[in-house]
Design goal:
This protein has 261 residues and is α/β, with parallel strands linked by helices. It has 2 domains: 30 residues; 226 residues, Rossmann fold, CATH 3.40.50. The protein has a 6-stranded mixed beta sheet, covered by helices on one side. The termini are far apart.
């Protein structure tokens, strides 16, 4: 009888925690308004936006969050699955009011335009950005014009495919961003000197089977040689989901929002 009661209680607790987590996600996701950006050529980019409780007396940081490969599509919803919700908690919104932009990359496209070279550990940045990246940059410039955005506090971060996209963005537009947080990504190490002035904190899992941690390690080495004071966190015994710890780290949040151009 006691075992039955205990099992029933544990089942109830599990269901309650699952329902609670779903409700929390739904409540947080509802804070992100549905948006679509269209440029002068008719190209469109779906995105979600979290706005601070702002007035016209001050300007606010702008955070660009680039999702991973599995969240591509056109539902304008999947990109909220990982990481970006940490910017929508009550505590973060109170301590760090900001505009948070989460664009969605269309299926079969990517944030970064990188080619592998003979060395399997190296990429080379191609001359032109991908269409989604081009639209993200155009969106940023529109938001600077239409919202009270502090252009000296524009940050970019992303996970996996978005981590590569973060490096792609800062290497192409090194004077646009005040700080970057690439998570389990990689970039063109030959461009390290172009971004050595940008505050960067890199995160990766040491046991990542999807994106090997040597991509981050090589970027850290190249940036250090270029004179950068780069931050690096390599989580031991962690696989591809390094973003679970990275975006839950209050020190990272504090560090990010302290950065200015």
């Amino acid at each position: 009888m006691k075992k039955t009661v205990v099992k029933s209680f544990l089942l109830f607790l599990s269901l309650f925690c699952g329902i609670s987590a779903n409700l929390t996600f739904a409540q947080s996701s509802s804070r992100f308004s549905f948006k679509t950006f269209t440029n002068g050529k008719g190209d469109t980019l779906n995105y979600r936006m979290l706005s601070p409780d702002y007035d016209t007396l001050r300007k606010y940081p702008l955070v660009i969050f680039l999702h991973g490969l599995g969240e591509r599509g056109n539902d304008n919803e999947a990109q909220l699955k990982w990481g970006v919700m940490n910017f929508a908690t009550d505590q973060t919104m109170v301590l760090h009011p900001a505009f948070i932009i989460a664009p969605q990359c269309p299926s079969n496209q990517t944030w970064s335009n990188l080619d592998r070279i003979e060395n399997p550990r190296e990429f080379r940045l191609q001359p032109s950005p991908t269409k989604p990246m081009e639209l993200v940059i155009q969106l940023i410039h529109q938001l600077i014009k239409t919202l009270p955005v502090d252009s000296n506090r524009i940050y970019i971060t992303g996970t996996s495919m978005g981590g590569f996209g973060t490096f792609d963005a800062i290497e192409r537009y090194p004077h646009l961003f005040a700080a970057a947080v690439p998570v389990c990504g990689g970039g063109d190490i030959s461009k390290a000197d172009l971004i050595a002035h940008i505050p960067i904190w890199i995160f990766h899992g040491s046991e990542d089977a999807a994106v090997n941690s040597f991509f981050s390690l090589d970027m850290v080495e190249a940036l250090t040689k270029a004179g950068a004071h780069v931050g690096f966190t390599l989580y031991p015994s962690v696989g591809h989901f390094a973003w679970l710890a990275a975006y839950s780290d209050p020190l990272m949040m504090e560090w990010l929002f302290r950065q200015h151009k």
